[in-house]
Amino acid sequence: MTFPTSERVSIDLNDQGIAHVRLTRPEKMNALDPAMFEAIIAAATALETAPGVRVVVLSGEGPSFCAGLDTSSFGAEPDASRPPLTERTHGDSNTFQQVATAWRKLPVPVIAAVHGVCFGGGMQIASGADIRVATPDARMAIMELKWGLVPDMGGYQLWRGLVRDDVLRELVYTNRQFSGEEAQGYGLVTHVTGDPLAKAMEIAATIADRNPHAIRAAKRLSNQMYDLGGEDLLMQESVEQAAIMRTPNQIEAVMAGMAKRKANYEDVA
User: What distances in angstroms separate CA 27 from CA 7, 63, 151, one per listed residue?
Assistant: First the structure.
């Protein structure tokens, strides 16, 4: 599989099916300029249909994960050549939202490894992942109101279910910086560790070892949890399970997985 090449984003796929996506603008703390927006969306688009991908790890090169919008790369006046923000250029999202929501839309799990600065749009990109691993001293903030704007790039949709309502409001209204350790307490970070990339890869290896059809079905169900009513969600769960058990190959994969887990449990016992 050949992935798009860019000075802003790189993708490596190993033999376990783990795709490592790196933001590669370290001299600017991976700040988001127009080229970075395009490269991130192109990377996510390529991964959406790439064969053999079981899980994605998203990280930033250099001293930081992502410092947010590179304001120096955008003019003071609106660019007339750009579509209006209300235009849905990528399904349910505009271009700016797609940079973050694309990771939630991928059919496989995404794990973000966060270190250094994670501000503004960087927070939204990390929030688009299924799982977030951060250093205890990572510097994080929802910055937009500092510039007189509301959080965008899909933040409100992605934060649903992650963080308590009043805590989110305070972080949005004040732009207060918080650490990776604090973020874990808020629900915005899953794990805190000195080496988030190593931890992300460890989690990715576990996921890559699971039935890929079940993992994708579980992600679809997770994405629908806050949109479907209880009755519809119960039905969708049944639909997904029935699809997994529909073919002999799938049943064989499930039984092989159960046997492998049973052997592991017996070794521990």
Answer: 12, 9, 25
